[in-house]
Automatic annotation (TrEMBL):
Belongs to the 'phage' integrase family. The lineage of its organism: Bacteria, Pseudomonadati, Pseudomonadota, Betaproteobacteria, Burkholderiales. It comes from Castellaniella ginsengisoli. GO terms for molecular function: DNA binding. PROSITE patterns: CB (PS51900), TYR_RECOMBINASE (PS51898). It comes from the Bacteria. The keyword Kinase does not apply. Gene3D superfamilies: 1.10.150.130, Intergrase catalytic core. This is Site-specific integrase.
Amino acid sequence: MSIRLRNGVWHVDFRAPSGQRVRHSAGTPDKKQAQEYHDRLKAQLWRQSKLGEQPDRTYDEAAIRFLAACEGQSDYDSKARYIEYWRQYLGRLAISQITTDDILGNLPTHKTHKHKEPTPLKPATKNRYLATIRTMLNMCATWGWIIKAPHLPAMKGPKRRIRWITHEQAQRLIAAIPQQWLKDACILGFATGMRVDVLYGLEWPQINLRNRSAWIEGDQAKSGRARAIPLKADALAVLERRQRKDGYVLARNGKRINDGDDRMFAKACADAGIENFRFHDIRHTWASWHAQAGTPLLVLQKLGGWETLDMVMKYAHLAPSHLEAHAGAVTFWSHEAETKKENGIQDCALNAVAA
């Protein structure tokens, strides 16, 4: 028999056309999946022997090369975690054998907890799992390991409104924070719109107080593009007070701050009477203030480091006034009526002179 059940897991066992014996685990307790894996593997070895085809690349080969290409990126640890997750379901398959059904059928649906019931995953979380495996397979296509990557549509989530607060609420929030480093982090966030990982990863060599600017490296930016951030009075006041020659700008006890203090931030929000507000919403607030102040969306895109203009359009509704200057550029009825009125006045004037 070509497949056998051992300790609850199916194994394949057959002779390849070359005479070599193939005997190993199929990596699944499902007989149907094991039989499918056996048939694919046997057909692949036949094509290699009889038609001279190149052997398929394995999942592990693709994972190693993909992670090597991503080394140094700010989200490297997350990508490594997602790649390890997919390995338990796709590791037995060659890259060319992975299908859309293989991926969507094993997409996680719930988050497990130690002391409570599992909770459903949000579409955004599922999309992060999909994004990693999609990127790896697209890179495999670029390397020539597969002809085309399988299609992986993104999960659609509910539309969410942009959460932002007023200047007065922001002042109350900052006043309610007892920790100076967290207070300074909020001020810099409201003043520059930097993402939380960029904010806490900012080092003093990236600050130029004389030129009133900060420099964000490409490996720190989500878009992968380096950019300069202008520093205004509020940000400069914090930086001048904390000024050092090296190290992290927002270091705590000489060490980098990784994730801030969500509990202290939530307490400060409650004390300031602000509901449903996260630290990342400081960036939304900064962008909303710019839109309300009339900053052009293309300029806002550059200031905030967004990759596309579509990412900034969610703030467009906050600045309707930027359309007013152009709304009257095209008229047809009122212009004609105004012209007739002016002509009528001129005719009356001429008649009066003639009389």
